[in-house]
Amino acid sequence: MKRRRPEIVGDEMQKVISTIIGTRLKDPRVPFMTSVTGVKMSSDLTHATVFISVYGDEKTKKDAMDALEHAKGFIRYEAVQEIKLRVAPELHFKLDNSLDEAARMDALIAKTIADDERRRIEREKREQGTGANEEEAGSENDR
User: Fold this and answer.
1) In the chain, where does DSSP find H-type helix?
2) Torsion-angle region of residue 63: left (phi > 0), alpha (psi -120 to 50) or beta?
3) CA dihedral (18, 23, 24, 30) positive or negative
4) Are 10 and 44 in contact (CB under 8 A)?
5) pLDDT over 70 for what percent of the chain?
6) Burial of 76 (0-12, 13-18, 19+ CB in 10 A)
């Protein structure tokens, strides 16, 4: 299946912007654990929505997004220098919380599994206790 040009350019923009943020952007508000999770290009390649994942608390995330907004022109210029495009796309940064959601879901799944295991063990103990009582009752009736 043939890929469309916006998807191809978006994939290349993701690689380039990730490199720019990781190596050339010197703003201390952007933490080391900042990554570009995706880039969605408009069909005419004039706009790029850049999805950013930042590891840290809400203040760290807000500071990183502010820093990226501040450095938008620099990132745009550097990206267009590496990817030869006729038009430099306008960058729109969006915070991507999918990794936070995935971690939250993992924690919920782990908690559910632990609760199920605890209930299974309790049920087995109750059943063993009930089985022992029935055996005692049966032996008393034999007498």
Assistant:
1) 5-19, 58-70, 72-82, 98-142
2) alpha
3) positive
4) no
5) 89
6) middle
Instruction: Concatenate the DSSP letters of all residues of 61-80 into one string.
Output: HHHHHHHHHHTHHHHHHHHH
CATH number assigned to the domain covering 5-96: 3.30.300.20
pTM of model > 0.85:
no
- Mean pLDDT for 30-58 is 93
Average pLDDT over residues 59-85: 94
Amino acid at 140: E
The CA distance from 63 to 47, in Å, is 23
* Cα separation, 44 vs 41, whole angstroms: 8
Q: Where are the domains of the chain?
A: 5-96, 98-143
**Distance, CA of 67 to CA of 52 (rounded, Å):** 12
